[in-house]
Amino acid sequence: MKLKTLMAASLSLFALFAFAGCAADTEGDEGDTATSEDKLLAGRKVPESEVAELLRDAGFPEDVVPTMVCTAKWESSFFERAYNKNKNGSKDYGLFQINSVHLGDENCPTTIEGLYTASKNAQCAFNVYSNEGLTAWVGYKKHKTECNNYKLK
To answer: Which has the minimum average pLDDT: 17-21, 74-78, 105-109, 115-119?
Structure first.
């Protein structure tokens, strides 16, 4: 009976982490929109090679493509429908975790559902990159050395 209870508790704990995700490390990020209240990894996991192709199609320079693939790895774990609710009330959506403030910006969808489409998310990411650079992404800032040296598989 104890084993059955222990297994049930373990499964519950696993489900909690698998579906709720992990909160972002908030140390030193008090004003950062990427500090997380709630994170969910969902949808299709996009292969790295497809992420690279989406970035090229969106207009990213070839030398930035590996860096942005690494950024997507840290932002969404390559999940097309990744979601993050930030402590400031804004929300991040999709492969590159595009913040809700960008809805309707140039090359960005006007709907949340649009941000869950990997190709549209990459196009919007190019707009963010063009206006704000790589440091717009917390995943890049926290893993800058890795991302600057990332090699595509």
So the answer is: 17-21
pTM of the model: 0.76
Per-state percent for the chain, helix, strand, coil, to nearest 5: 50, 10, 40
Q: Classify 38 as helix, strand or coil.
A: strand
- What residues are annotated to the active site? 75, 92
The string of DSSP codes covering 69-132 is HHHHHHHHTTBTT-EEEETTS-EEETTTTEEGGGTTSTTS-SSHHHHTSHHHHHHHHHHHHHHH
- Please tell me the distance from the alpha carbon of residue 2 to that of residue 110, in angstroms, as a whole number: 53
pLDDT at position 32 over 80: no
Looking at residue 95, what is its pLDDT? 98
Residue closest to 138 by CA, chosen among 7, 15, 29, 48:
29
pLDDT of residue 60: 98
In single-letter form, the type of residue at position 100 comes to S
123 neighbors 107 (Cβ within 8 angstroms): yes
